Amino acid sequence: MKNRVCEMLNIEHPVLQGGMAWIADASLAAGVSEAGGLGLITGTAPIEWIRDEIRKAKKLTNKPFGVNIMLMSPHVDEVAKLVCDEKVPVVTTGAGSPGKYMEMWKSHGIKVIPVVASVALAKRMEKSGADAIIAEGTESGGHVGQLTTMSLIPQVVDSVDIPVIAAGGIADGRGVAASFMLGAEGVQLGTRFLVAKECTVHQNYKDKVLKAKDIDTDVTGRATGHPVRVLKNKLSREFQKREKSGASVDELEELGKGTLPLAAVTGDIVNGSVMAGQIAGLVNKEESCKEIIEDLINGAKKVIDNFGGLDD
Fold this sequence. Notes:
Elements: H1 4-9, E1 15-17, H2 26-34, E2 39-42, H3 47-60, E3 65-70, H4 76-85, E4 90-94, H5 99-107, E5 111-116, H6 119-128, E6 133-136, E7 142-143, H7 149-159, E8 164-167, H8 173-181, E9 186-189, H9 191-194, H10 203-211, E10 217-220, E11 228-231, H11 234-244, H12 249-256, H13 259-264, H14 289-306
Parallel strand pairs: 1-9, 2-3, 3-4, 4-5, 5-6, 6-8, 8-9
Antiparallel strand pairs: 7-11, 10-11
C-alpha cells in the first residue's frame, strides 16, 4: 500500500494516529511510528510537557513522528516554534488555518497536514502550502464538523491535488479499504488507538470505549459553536439538558471546562468528557500498536483482494 503519503512521510503504512489532547503522548506516538505508521504527540499542553514528550519519543523510536497543534491553543505560538527547534518532521493542525506559521515550518523542512471538515477549507489549505489534507468526517471523536466521511472524502479528493487522508469512523480494514475507494491515500484513527497497550489514558476511559455500543456516542456543544462527540454519560446528558433550556455559551463552556483531563487522566468517566468516535462499538479489545496496524493493513488488503469486480 505504498503511495504518496508513505513517500512524503517516510513511513511504511499510510496510517496516522490522531493527536488526541491529554492522551497522545510519547508512548503512543512512538508505538505507532515503530509499527510503521505515523504517531502524533498532542500539542495542546504546556510547552515544557510537549518538549519533554518530543524528546522521550526520540529515545523510543528513530522513525518519524509528528505533533498535532490546535491553533486555538493559548500556547500555539510557542509550540509552533518548538517543533522547529526540536526538528519535528511533521505537523498536523486543527481549529483554524496554519497560514501564519507556514513559512517558518516550511523553512525547517516540516511537512504540514491540516485537518479540515469542508471542501472550502481544503482548497484554502492547499493554496497556503499544505503538503496533504486530513479530511475528517463528523463520525470522529472530539471536535466535529457537519459532513460525514462518506460524503466529505470524495468531494475533498476532487477539489485538491495534494494527498487526502481520511478520518472519522475508521477502525478496521474495511474502513481503510473504503477510504481508499473514496480516493484517500491514507487514514487517521483516534478511537481505536485509545485502547492500544501503549496508550497511557486511564484504564476507566479504555474500558468505557471497549464496552461502547453503536449508539453510545452523542454530540454536545452545538450551541457553543464547538460541537464535540463523546460517549454518553452524566456530563453529556447534563450538557444537552442545559443546551435545550437555553443556557448561555459562557455557562456551557464553564460546564465543559477541564472535563477531558478529568476523564483521561483521573479516570472519572461519569463527570468527565469521554471523547470517542461512532466507531467505538467496533473497538472491542486492547492490542499493541503493531497488532492494530497489522490488522488494519491486512484487513484492507483482504477486502480489496476479495473484491472481484462487477458483472457486465
